[in-house]
Design brief:
Layout lengths: L1 H16 L6 E3 L6 E3 L1 H9 L3 H12 L9 E5 L2 E5 L2 H12 L12 E5 L11 H19 L3 E5 L7 H12 L10 H18 L2 H15 L5 H50 L5 H17 L5 H27 L1 H20 L7 H17 L5 H21 L4 H17 L4 H24 L17
Parallel strand pairs: 5-6
Antiparallel strand pairs: 1-2, 2-4, 3-4
Helix pairs in contact: 2-3, 6-7, 6-8, 9-10, 9-11, 12-13, 12-14, 13-15
């Protein structure tokens, strides 16, 4: 069902944008699917990606094949959310009898799994084989095969004969705290070493094997004694197993919570445009991920894909940005040059407030335009600042009012960015540090000239 939705959405995007690659990808926590196609269209349309994303959302929301789907622009990114109706359709389908089953087949399948050796200790690998075997059995049945599952109990043969010889001829004293299966394995290994040293022992093992095969069933009394001993060892094994996996589960849940926290941090950086700092932070998060141990198997694949998707999204965007950075910077320079011309030729009206709002809108557009070639940055910034100051002087806007206006414009622009929360927190922390420094200087009687970081900082 997801594939059908994705296919429809991809086709509609291709029709709307005219591009063959519409850069459709998983949306992570924020959406079912998302696209960065606005970046690819920026050069073609000579518009800011944010504006392109908003226009695309308006067009796509009217498309009849996307009815019921929430489509929203987050800065230059477009998110697609399928909603409750989509989830309801999937649940209803899954509740239908025979969901996922294939037609019955005449082929008969015999599946043997686990079949632990009687001369070796039981370990986690045997449990793993049981899980894999049972999973395969359920898959075969769901696929319509006639299935027979077997567990081969290898309680006779040459291996058992070697164990019997070892217990008969070697020191078979069980060590303190040694499990039964580990005890048998130790004697079996020691007996094999003696056989390698003395080939004549092979004949003794062969005689024991013949004797074993010739013996019939044991009496009821002996059978009961053997069974009670076996059952006691089995109960001890399962008690130890429960304790072991209880502790293992607790540690894995702790590891899971640590990895969820790393996912949250990575997702906060996925749409960042601070390429250097965010790259360093993501690499640090990846190193931390490697140091954390395993998580519960049912969460392992999902949590890894979530973390990987956030990292891949950021580095893909970074790669795309630097791949097209020269052409994009040239387009941005053209846009900023045109905007400076509008400021220089600004047409005043009799309404002072309307004039201020028009200037604010031009300033907002300036903030939305990305970087320009570094050699042109200072020149453009100086021309822009001179044009804005000229208008403010003519409108008799004092310095305090200018700073307030610039501050508001700047943060209105930040609010549209995907990582706005992180940028604002960073700004707030910077302000708090500076305020604390001023308080300390004030209490010590020092006088300091202050320039707080909330003043306008136009981007080039």
């Amino acid at each position: 069902m997801l594939l059908e939705k994705r296919t429809i959405l991809e086709r509609v995007l291709k029709e709307t944008t005219g591009l063959n690659d519409v850069l459709l990808a998983e949306g992570g926590e924020h959406a079912d699917l998302a696209t960065t196609v606005a970046f690819a269209l920026a050069k073609q349309k000579k518009q800011a990606p944010v504006k392109i994303a908003q226009d695309l959302v308006a067009d796509l929301s009217k498309h009849p094949e996307l009815t019921g789907m929430t489509i929203e622009a987050k800065g230059p990114y477009i998110n697609f959310i399928f909603g409750k109706e989509y989830v309801s359709e999937i649940v209803k389908a899954a509740l239908q009898p025979g969901y996922g089953s294939l037609e019955k087949k005449t082929t008969r399948v015999v599946l043997e799994h686990t079949s632990a050796n009687p001369n070796g200790p039981l370990h986690v690998g045997h449990i793993r084989n049981s899980i894999i075997g049972d999973t395969l059995a359920r898959a075969f049945r769901k696929a319509g095969y006639r299935l027979e599952v077997q567990y081969y109990v290898n309680d006779m043969g040459r291996q058992i004969a070697i164990v019997v010889w070892g217990f008969t001829h070697l020191d078979s004293t069980q060590h303190e705290g040694e499990k039964e299966d580990a005890h048998i394995a130790r004697i079996y290994i020691a007996a094999n070493r003696r056989i390698e040293e003395d080939p004549e022992i092979t004949q003794q093992v062969n005689e024991l094997l013949k004797l074993w095969k010739s013996i019939g069933q044991a009496g009821q009394k002996v059978n009961n004694e053997v069974w009670m001993r076996f059952k006691g060892n089995l109960d001890t094994y399962f008690a130890n197993k429960k304790d072991f996996f209880g502790k293992l589960k607790e540690q894995q849940l702790h590891n899971y919570n640590l990895k969820v926290d790393l996912c949250v941090q990575a997702e906060a950086l996925r749409y960042s445009t601070e390429w250097r700092n965010s790259s360093r932070d993501l690499i640090r998060l990846q190193d931390e991920w490697k140091k954390i141990g395993p998580v519960p198997r049912k969460h392992s694949d999902k949590i890894w894909k979530r973390f990987r998707a956030a990292c891949d999204e950021f580095f893909h965007r970074k790669s795309e940005y630097f791949k097209n950075v020269q052409s994009t910077e040239g387009e941005n320079m053209t846009l900023k040059t045109e905007l400076i011309r509008k400021l220089e030729e600004f047409e005043y009206t009799a309404d002072r407030q309307a004039n201020l709002e028009s200037v604010k809108e031009l300033q907002r557009q300036w903030m939305e335009i990305g970087h320009v070639p570094i050699k042109e940055k200072d020149r453009l910034q100086a021309e822009y600042k001179a044009a804005v100051n000229k208008i403010y002087d003519k409108l008799k806007v004092d310095t305090a009012e200018q700073r307030t206006s610039n501050y508001r414009n700047r943060f209105e622009n930040i609010k549209e960015q995907p990582d706005a929360h992180r940028i604002i927190n960073k700004e707030r922390n910077s302000l708090q540090i500076r305020i604390d420094e001023l308080k300390e200087e004030s209490s010590s009687g020092k006088t300091t000239s202050v320039s707080l970081p909330v003043q306008n900082r136009p981007m080039c």
